[in-house]
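Duplicate of #3305? Posting structure anyway:
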């Protein structure tokens, strides 16, 4: 019934701290070289990048560096600043809205009456809901994704109607991705959608996918007809071998 009780691991007692961290530190109590027998239980040895021995406390934050200090407080500060900078680069935060330049005047429209749900790759038409990636709009609209309706797809620029303020923009199709929630893909019992690969395509890729199908009709090569119309057929075998 009574569960076994274990005491929390004890930290290194202060009595067995080193007297100083010279090249040969000694224990305060034992007088022997540090770490003494008691201190060894609580320490895990390591090695500093400068080559000298260091000890890390097993159950605590303390560390000991044997030998002269290999860094200054300036080094520590520079290292901390570097880490903070790297973290900031990896996790950027966007400035507040008043940072952005004013939005230029744009014509506004009512919500377009189009309605289109893509059913496969390349199936983009007016009425498709998509997201405008940051950089697709004027900087005044901010550095966030904007929900927009595709009103006129084009290979150079697509016309979109931005849901936020009902303005109309012309955006490069490589900066538009389809809105997954508008694809009409049902959720399973766990509330997840099994998305097809083309759900993450940009509109530019959808248009590229559609383009070869439009250019399907292949005309007969005129060279062949001219070849058979020729009665002499002087170099036919040579020509075939070349082909
Ligand atoms: Zn000791
Ligand atoms: Zn060091």
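Output from current build:
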């Amino acid at each position: 019934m009574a569960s076994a009780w274990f005491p929390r691991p004890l930290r290194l007692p202060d009595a067995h701290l080193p007297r100083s961290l010279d090249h040969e530190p000694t224990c305060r109590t034992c007088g022997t070289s540090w770490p003494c027998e008691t201190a060894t239980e609580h320490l895990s040895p390591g090695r500093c990048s400068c080559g000298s021995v260091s000890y890390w406390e097993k159950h605590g934050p303390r560390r000991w560096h044997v030998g002269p200090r290999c860094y200054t407080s300036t080094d520590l500060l520079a290292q901390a600043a570097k880490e903070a900078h790297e973290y900031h680069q990896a996790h950027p935060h966007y400035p507040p809205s008043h940072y952005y330049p004013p939005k230029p005047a744009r014509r506004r429209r009512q919500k377009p009456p189009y309605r289109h749900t893509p059913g496969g790759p390349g199936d983009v038409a007016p009425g498709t809901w998509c997201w405008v990636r940051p950089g697709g709009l004027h900087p005044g609209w901010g550095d966030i994704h904007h929900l927009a309706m595709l009103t006129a797809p084009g290979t150079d620029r697509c016309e979109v109607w931005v849901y936020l303020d009902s303005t109309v923009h012309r955006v490069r199709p490589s900066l538009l991705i389809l809105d997954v929630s508008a694809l009409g893909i049902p959720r399973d019992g766990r509330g997840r959608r099994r998305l097809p690969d083309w759900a993450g395509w940009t509109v530019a890729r959808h248009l590229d996918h559609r383009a070869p199908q439009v250019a399907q009709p292949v005309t007969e090569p005129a060279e062949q007809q001219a070849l058979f119309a020729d009665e002499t057929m002087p170099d036919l075998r040579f020509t075939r071998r070349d082909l």
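Confirmed duplicate; merging threads. Strands lie at 43-47, 53-57, 63-65, 129-132, 146-152, 158-162, 168-171, 176-178. Confidence is low (pLDDT under 50) at residues 236-243.
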